[in-house]
Amino acid sequence: MCLGIPGKIVDTYEENDVQMGKVDFGGVFKRVCLAHTPQAQVGQFVIVHVGFALQVIDEEEAKHVFAFLNGMNELEELHVGETERASET
Amino acid sequence: MSHAMKYQEEYRDAAAAKKLQQAIAAATTRPWTIMEICGGQTHTIVKYGIDELLPPEIELVHGPGCPVCVTPLELIDKGIEIASRPDVIFCSFGDMLRVPGSRRDLFAIKALGADVRIVYSPLDCLKIARQNPGKTVVFFAVGFETTAPANAMAVWQAKRLGITNFAVLVSHVLVPPAMTAILSSPNNRVQGFLAAGHVCTVVGYEEYEPLAQRFNIPIVVTGFEPLDLLEGVYRCVLMLEKGRKGVDNQYSRVVRRAGNEHARKLLDEVFEIADRKWRGIGTIPQSGYRLRPEFEAFDAERRFAVDRLEVLESDACISGLILQGVKKPHQCPAFGTLCTPEHPLGATMVSSEGACAAYFNYGRFRSGQDKRQLQPA
Question: Which of A69, B157, B193, B336 is the most buried (most CB within 10 A)?
């Protein structure tokens, strides 16, 4: 099973000496083991697989594909501008 | 991005997908065959029709990234035998219940009265074990590297807390040896890989670098949402077009080169690497995990001596060819007729990560989906 779902940590606690969290998956709350992400804080998002957080989601890295696509927008506008100028001559 | 990210819907945006589709088409000048490893990625591709968005030169081939599908039939039969015992509570994730064994499946014996339970997390088994001291809780620990840390934690906790009525039936397989086996095959057509994003979240991608060098291929660590798959294909095509080999990380919002050090440390403590048999493929050396000697007491195969089982594979099932990317589900004569999710002949039709299940559930019945056949001469 490779399915990992992003969820937001809303609470953390210890159970049997293991770090656990209460995670919000768009309104559905589940217990998640945070033993592999000890640095995770309330308010951060984690990727969860079979009740375990695999990693904290890096917000900056998450935006890069959208920055790339915005860059494509700018290239398109440049290209359109050139075509319009060419048709005017 | 004006709103706070939730990390799901944003990666399903249709306008963004169209842009990536155009970028891929613009970059592609010749045919390429790319394999995605993980069954979860196969499902996204089929569900959103990602392969149909690609230019006809690009062929996406589905790999053996379905741990349920590659679990040997002998082990499934063993699990069913153990689960049938009155002193056992047998636990697994949901999709194992309908995987056909030689004669029946876990669901059938559950209907006959066996105590078979679906769990959300392997840790749930420890609770059940404590609540049922007179029984042995056996967990079917199936998965790739992604699931291994959770299973390792359950065993590690059980030992630490002195929970002795707990055992695991281990069927853990590793991705890099499977990639090596595919690339080493004389019939191999795969020129680039989309590596499994959550496997790499756990173990990182350092191990893929020598693989990429040895076989001269690009490997792009890729996520699971539509935009992830499209961006992964785009980055792979760019590398292929430029003749570049090596590892690129598309899924950088969760994958680091060294993976998750806490998870890796626990894995190393509980498991060691061993040879493993992959259903439909055969034995791949050093391709799986087994419990280390210190945790042997929790190994269900040791605890439960099962009589020599006669294993019966279905004649009609071509799961092995599907898992190696040699055939696609709709090319199987039994697909959709003899073999459906309700009465599956093999694991690829049952598992939530199986290619046949994906094709069936998202209506891919006709071979007209293969665009290469539609290219004018």
Answer: B193
